[in-house]
Design goal:
This protein is of the alpha+beta class and 495 residues long. It contains 19 helices and 13 strands.
């Protein structure tokens, strides 16, 4: 009898074990994935109850018993777990005991605006959107009451962030802010001397400009160098991304000339210095570029400029000297000396024009030795030479014939007439020899009208032109001789 009882007991235990094993190890098909959240210090009893209520496990007691047998009933990892549609109680137990809670990844791209960052986070599934609907001011007050600025732009590091599924979106903002502060502080501490930043926030602003100006890592150093040099010499930064940022929603994908001229706090074409705030979330590379003077890149560019200057100086000097010979300066020499100078936005040297006005004389600085008449002719010679290499449509000469007369004046007039074949030339002159060489003659007069002085311009006819040239020759009292001389000058100039 005892044997029979033991036999049935064995059969029962075997069957029971088989049932328990099935309930524990056989996956249950729930039709769709399921997410369960284990709170901190939450035990297996309450977790199993929730699973049973939602029909995820066959039997909660089997799960609880297994947890106690393993001694892990109070060793559950808090977090959110995503379970597949087909899962066993044993699989669940292993996940919440040893497994890492499911995480949600949020990627913030380099150069994005803070508004774009908020939209990405607001649209991320499987996290708690505690900050959705908050103002930027409230968000900053919650994230960092001691922030560099109450404006959040630029103060969050662009990166890929992972948080536990079901975690608060505020966690992402806090992590991103802390990471930007760390990277900014590191760049600030390692910055080179002589940079035009008063504090780390200004360097952060510069980094955002660099980030938006170029997407190529190799170009960041060059862009940073240009911006720093412009700040050092008081030049406006003149970068389009700042204009776009200042336009806000008015920007439709294209910048017009009117947009560049319309003043906003962010328009670096109309305002000097840095923008009031960053214009984007800068990368680590942009921060590092903002922290460097880029001396290596500067010297490479400066040396290229110096080499080009040496070639241009030799050519410009010899061609200018050749034209000076035609302007009644026979035997004169003209030379361009490149004097070493401290590094600046204009390179590694200063340019000095040197002249020897008389044959055999030594070369000396132009501003020290040249007379008024010589300066006028040298200036004209320079304009004639450079006009061959430029696309300037109009050249204006204001009394380039100062301190000259006679045959020299006639030579200057012919040079201006020759220059006028390739360019529109406007020459202000009081010399009849020069005026006679013009294709057109405009007379400028000043008259008093009450308390105002009014200038008028009159285009002279052929007859009027003879009269004006005669007046320039002989004064207000005109004679037949002066009129004849004026007509002769005009006839000779037209040949």
């Amino acid at each position: 009898m005892l044997k029979k009882l033991l036999k049935w007991l064995a059969v029962f235990l075997t069957a029971f074990a088989a049932v328990v094993a099935a309930l524990l190890f056989v996956p249950k098909n729930n039709g769709k994935p399921y997410r369960i959240t284990v709170a901190k210090n939450q035990g297996i009893s309450s977790v199993s109850r929730k699973l049973a209520q939602d029909g995820i496990v066959y039997n909660r007691y089997v799960l609880v018993a297994a947890a106690y047998v393993m001694g892990v009933h109070n060793q559950l990892n808090a977090g959110s777990y995503r379970l597949s549609a087909k899962v066993s109680a044993w699989d669940i137990l292993k996940r919440i005991k040893k497994g890492r809670p499911d995480s949600v990844s949020v990627q913030i791209l380099e150069g994005a605006r803070f508004a774009q960052m908020r939209r990405i986070i607001d649209n991320t599934a499987d996290i708690a959107h505690d900050t959705r609907g908050w103002s930027d001011e409230k968000l900053m007050a919650e994230v960092a009451p001691d922030a560099l600025s109450s404006n959040p732009e630029g103060q969050f590091f662009p990166d890929s962030y992972e948080i536990d599924a079901g975690g608060s979106d505020l966690q992402i903002y806090k992590i991103a802010y802390r990471k930007m502060r760390e990277n900014l502080q590191e760049a600030w501490d390692d910055r080179q001397s002589g940079l035009p930043y008063k504090n780390p926030y200004e360097m952060l602003i510069m980094a955002s400009l660099i980030e938006k100006e170029t997407a190529h890592e190799d170009d960041r150093a060059h862009v940073a160098s240009v911006f720093v040099n412009r700040l050092n010499i008081g030049m406006r930064l003149q970068t389009d991304p700042t204009v776009i940022y200042g336009m806000g929603s008015a920007y439709k994908g294209k910048i017009r000339k009117a947009d560049l001229q319309r003043d906003t706090p962010y328009n670096t074409y109309t305002r000097s210095g840095l923008t009031p705030t960053p214009i984007a979330l800068p990368s680590k590379a942009a921060l590092e570029a903002a922290a460097e003077r880029c001396e290596k890149q500067y010297h490479e560019a400066a040396q290229q400029l110096s080499a080009g200057r040496r070639q241009a100086a030799e050519r410009l000097g010899s061609e200018t000297a050749a034209h000076m010979q035609e302007l009644a300066m026979k035997g004169a020499r003209f030379h361009i000396e490149l004097l070493p100078a401290s590094p600046s936005a204009f390179g590694l040297e200063q340019v000095q024009y040197q002249v020897a006005a008389n044959k055999g004389g030594p070369l000396r600085p132009l501003n020290k030795v040249a007379s008024g008449g010589e300066l006028a002719r040298i200036s004209l010679a320079l304009q004639v030479v450079t006009s061959q290499y430029t696309q300037t449509p109009t050249l204006i000469f204001d009394e380039v014939d100062t301190c000259i007369g006679g045959g020299v004046a006639e030579t200057v007039g012919r040079a201006l007439r020759s220059l006028g074949r390739k360019h529109q030339v406007l020459a202000v002159t009081h010399l009849p020899q020069v005026a006679a060489c013009g294709e057109q003659h405009w007379q400028v007069r000043k008259n008093n009208e009450g308390e105002q002085t009014v200038s008028s311009i009159h285009v002279l006819s052929a007859e009027e032109r003879v009269e004006e040239i005669a007046r320039m020759l002989g004064g207000e009292t005109l004679t037949a001789t002066t009129r004849s001389h004026a007509a002769e000058l005009l006839e000779m100039a037209a040949r």
